[in-house]
Amino acid sequence: MLQAPQQDVELAKASAPVEQQPEPAQTADIDGLRKAIRLSNATADGRNDNSRDWHDPNAFRGDRDNRDRDNRDWDQRVRQWDRNWVRYDDYYRPILCNPYHDTLRVIYIYQYQPRIVLIPPLASVVLDTLAYGAYNFTALVLDTFGTAANVAVGSFFGGGYYPGPDLALPPPPPPLPTYDNVPVVVNYPQATYAPFTVGQIVDVGDDGQYGEHKVLLDGVTPVWGAWTQTPGGQRQFEVHKTQQLPGIDDPQAGPLPGNYQLRLASNPSSGFTSRDVFVIAADAVVGTLALCAAGAFVISRRRSRTLH
To answer: Is the residue at 64 inside a domain?
Structure first.
């Protein structure tokens, strides 16, 4: 989870929220954010690594050598936005605060289009989100070189609105079902991981856009999958995909945002973060394919010699 000095958090929360109604973002603006994240290991003299591919599992390892040279670099881990940094006004509209000394960029999807909100340092904004639902966002803090210094996934709930002067308050949006201490199992095409327990799951329901059932791990991290049961009959959620960058990329099988400890189901003695396990599994798949290719090459050479 992202952290900030408590004094800065209190200053941001105490600021007067500025109302924001962002228009749909331009494609070039979203592409610029993708570039800022991919080039997050820029060095102090402006030299950038353009070869990083965000969809390559190895990209989540980061570049240790570059980080040692410049400790301002993002470590390639997508964290969770602190739920306490999101609150709601009297009209049930979400208020997002920025407890950092740099401008915060918040990217989310509203009415099927990406929106970008800029929150000045130690300030806050209030968003009009009349459409009821759970919205995930990417919180992006850029350094002075325009590259990612911090990246996190957060969530807020829509359904509130300002009715107009001297009019009655809108009704509160209906609460979503929540479940405490729920076992979760991650089942991806390349590997299955041992179950772990999260403190709370918020059940968003069936997702008409991306399919399957959507829930929020600890009320923040979005995942898609299905409700199942443990061998003992306890409620359990099976994860099939998650979303590293809401508003920027689509859901896919990948590391879970947050510091979740995952273990490969076939190796219960080794504990890793979800990012580490995903990288290991991806490397295993690549290694297997390489061995198969080498074997096929050897067999082909032997057959060629036999024929001659």
So the answer is: yes
The stretches in the chain having pLDDT less than 70 are: 39-73, 267-308
CA 154, CA 222: separation in Å to the nearest integer?
A: 9
DSSP 214-238: EEEETTTEEEEEEEEE-TTS-EEEE
Tokens of 257: 């945002």
Looking at the structure, do residues 238 and 124 belong to the same domain, yes or no?
A: no
Taking the C-alpha atoms of residue 247 and residue 38, their distance in angstroms, rounded to an integer, is 16
Q: Are residues 131 and 13 in the same domain?
A: yes
How far CA 182 is from CA of 32, 197, 202, 219, 239, in Å, comes to 38, 5, 10, 12, 12
Q: Full-prediction pTM beyond 0.85?
A: no
CA distance 293 to 154: 42
Domain boundary among 106, 129, 160: 160
Alpha helices, H only, 121-224: none
Exposed/middle/buried for residue 70 (C-beta within 10 Å: 0-12, 13-18, 19+):
middle
Q: How many domains does the chain have?
A: 2
Residues 196 and 99 in one domain: no
154 and 186 belong to one structural domain: no
